[in-house]
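Subject line: Sequence and fold of a protein, written as structure tokens
Area: Proteins and the way their chains fold up in space.
Start of record: The labelled sequence and token lines come straight after this line.
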Amino acid sequence: MMSGLREMRDQMRTVDLIIETRDARIPLSSINKQFEQVIKGKRRVVVYNKCDLAPTSLQSVVRKVMESRNQRTLFTDTNINKSVKQILDVARETAKSDPMRYPQLVIMVIGMPNVGKSSLINALRRTGLNRGKAANTGAKPGVTRTVSGRIRVLDSPAVYLVDTPGVMIPHIPDPITAIKVALTGGIKDNIADDTVLADYLLFRLNRLDHTDYSAVLGINQRTDDISEFLQLLGTKIGALRRGGELDTDKTIQFFLRAFRQGRFGQLCLDELDEASVATFFKNNMEDAPLSKNQAQKAKRAAQRQRSLEKARSKNLI
């Protein structure tokens, strides 16, 4: 995590615009407050990706919340060129606002793991240049390991993108927020407790009126009991071991995969009423005391940054 932030910081002086990518299904939980120190005074656009998986009706609410924090907000589906074109329009607008300052515009794409940064870059290249993919993609977090070289996405004006590794918050203080991030694939499945994820997902689905998960999964009843639910689902999909014993792991993975593929319809896992938004920013965005290890890492990073700035001032690099 610290190496990813350090690489971003080292390249920041060559970057003109930040695209901070978040997951539209968790518009609050996919915010990484550590980006604030890296971005500082840079121009930024917040892009809520995977908007096809989240209710369209919530876009105006999210936009109002973020714009109250001076964050310009867009919503994208990387499968639709018109949706992606919004970002290219912002790039053109920025470049043309001051051609002398921006003979070529460099955009850095940042975000937490698995919010779709690389897919977004490929979609921008496809839309802007009608060319194939330039960044590796995958359903698991952590596909991009290092800050990439520049990827051209527009010819006139000349616009380049820089892909970055997904950067996870070192500690998510709210366990429910951590569960939401894990459910959407931001935390590797071998780290998160799959049974807890499945239990929470079942809880959220039972609270929603617009989706009948039992019909989607082909089971004959709804239930709040995770053990009963897994037995019903495992029997339906044939996830049984020899002797008829339930294969719990296989059943849970089937359930989680169905959610991540959007089979239960458009869902938002974050509460977006005024009180919940205020509570989120209070609990998650205010600085918490650093652990001893985090403090040591922060001190080393600050020392390295000061050394870089000193060398630059003497034109050594």
Notes: Confidence is low (pLDDT under 50) at residues 135-139, 141-147. The longest strand covers residues 17-23. Strands lie at 17-23, 43-49, 72-75, 105-111, 150-154, 159-163. The chain has twelve helices and six strands.
